[in-house]
Amino acid sequence: MVVVAGSAVVVSQASADQKTLDLKKWYVLVNRNSGKVLDDRGSAKNDGAAVVQWARNGGADQQWRFVDAGDGYYRLKNRTSGKVLDDLGWSKTAGSAIVQWKDQNAANQQFKLAKSSKGYVRLVNRFSGMAVGVRNAAKANGGNVVQNRDRGGAEQQWQLVPAGSVGTSPATPSSPAAGGSSSLTRFMGGNKILVGGSMSDASAAAAPFDVRYAYIHSRPAPSSAAYTAARCKDEWSGWWGCWGGNTTAPGNQVTWQDAQAAKATYQGKSRPQKYLWTWYSLRDLGDAAGEGDGPGEVKAINRLDLLTRYLNDYRFFLQKIGNSHDMIDLEPDFWGFARSLGNLHQVPSQVSGANPTDCGSQENSAAGLARCLISMAHKYAPNTAVGLHLSCFDWQSNLQKCVKDYADLGAKNADFLVTDVSDRDAGWYAQPAHGGSDHFWTDQKAAASLKFWKTMAESVGKPVVLWQIPVGNMAGNNTPGHFKDDKVDWLFGHMDKVANAHIAGLLFGAGWTEQTTPETDGGNLIRKTTALHDAGGTTLK
Predict the structure, then answer these.
(1) Bridge partners of 111?
(2) pLDDT of residue 182
(3) Which residues are within 8 A (CB) of 488 and not within 5 positions of it... i.e. 6 or more apart?
(4) Integer Cα distance of 349 and 335 in angstroms
(5) 334: helix, coil or strand?
(6) Predicted confidence band of residue 118 (pLDDT cuts 50, 70, 90)
(7) Are the beta carbons of 109 and 75 closer than 8 angstroms?
(8) Cα-flanking dihedrals φ and ψ of residue 311, to 5°?
């Protein structure tokens, strides 16, 4: 009921029927106006930590439990922080902040669920009498959550969705699956398995490819001046931002390739492609720490000077992506090195000191670094999906440790997981000069890998992208550029099983020299991609 009193609008605050509210469940609160959800910004755990709205990502920082405070009031407890929603400073001022604070069961931490239409509720604070909403009815990620006079606006209405409900919430059926809102059945704005890889422009135009990928693999910028310079300098040419030479602006590597992908065509018609960037720079930071691959990387993240440069470089990279609908593959192999040291919350990293602006509330550990990188991606490249690289070298013997470790890394806050299938063709590995090992797939080997990926996808509620899949053709002659492999044939021949494993993307390419490429495989990848597209593609599951 709405009562008009003078010029003021007063909305009925009759309590919602709470017979269906389960105090043992965690809920996601979906805003009616924006479709975004109530979020502990940056997974912060400190008193006074901000509460914002963000695209749903399945993370614990977006899950809330209702704690009975008596008389029809409840406290809303965040799953990540353990803090509760709080009217900051016992304010009765319209527009004042709603934050998180230690649970003191005080009146400024207690909320009544007032009815709105179609199952939505308003959260009315017991002390102030004001309703929780999004400032200025904003619809963007990061919109501040505040209290204001209870006018019943859509920005003050919330839908309670059980956290176990996997997929896009009922309030956001058409929301894009990037920037944190992917599910097992939608990814990058669609519901089909994406196909692409690392290839020439000619190959990319020869079939209806969805995605291209490239590495960002260098030490951070040699000078902070590079981030604001109008043109690159010759002495910066070893840095990824100036790979294009001294005639381009820093960061042109990303902006130019994004623009080219957006202009892609197929059979004379516009067919924009997406870009996946493999951010692989901790490897180079390990070199800077003096120990290289593996041990050097873990040492580097605990050096304030090196990690500061690294996170500044990462921020610049994200700013170059901007509003593009890209994907990011975060640090292949590194998470495996960190996992080998034990509890990821105890592997030291100078996260908060290296980037107090974006990650000051993160813990100083490898787990905190992963969460920092994910949070920064969502902040600076809001339309881009970010994925932790799945580096579980021990998955065949210790799968549950992998599940636990990726939970510790905050993988639920990302948009997908990404993993490499093999960096070289099976025919290359089979050569005596290269060890003579068997990397060809049997149905049993494929089934084991798919089971692993499916388990990981379901553990975080996000799909898996297979990256760096060998392009080898079984018709090859096992010479450089023409090595055999059966992965292309097997995957395209078993797309139902691929979908059942929650695979959202098949990205083909080599991780080493001499390997077969889309330009040297006799057209096998192009033909199979075209045939899949012409058959209608494969729907995500």
Answers:
(1) 74, 125
(2) 63
(3) 469, 470, 471, 472, 473, 508, 521, 524, 525, 528
(4) 13
(5) helix
(6) confident
(7) yes
(8) -70, -30
Q: Look up residue 315 and give its two tokens.
A: 């921020």
The pLDDT tens digits of the residues spanning 362-394 come to 999 999 999 999 999 999 999 999 999 999 999
Question: Can you tell me the distance from the alpha carbon of 144 to that of 136, in angstroms, rounded to the nearest whole number?
Answer: 9
Q: Average pLDDT of 154-183? A: 59
Residues for the chain: how many in total?
541
Q: What is the pLDDT of residue 18?
A: 44
From residue 388, give the alpha-carbon distance in Å to each of 50, 327, 408, 416, 464.
25, 11, 12, 7, 10
Query: Which tokens in the block code for residue 302?
Result: 């605990």
User: 12-162: which CATH topology?
Assistant: Trefoil (Acidic Fibroblast Growth Factor, subunit A) (2.80.10)
Contact 150, 164 (CB under 8 A): no
Percent share of the chain, pLDDT over 90: 85
CB-based contacts of 169, cutoff 8 Å, min separation 6: 28, 30, 35, 37, 56, 159, 161
Q: Where are the alpha helices (DSSP H) in 230-290?
A: 252-262, 282-288
Q: Which of 350, 365, 465, 373 is nearest to 408 (CA)?
A: 365
**Nearby residues of 425 by Cβ (< 8 Å), 6 or more positions away:** 439, 470, 471, 472, 483, 484, 485, 510, 515, 516
What pLDDT band is residue 176 in, cutting at 50, 70 and 90?
Answer: very low
| CATH 2.80.10.50 domain locations along the chain | 12-162
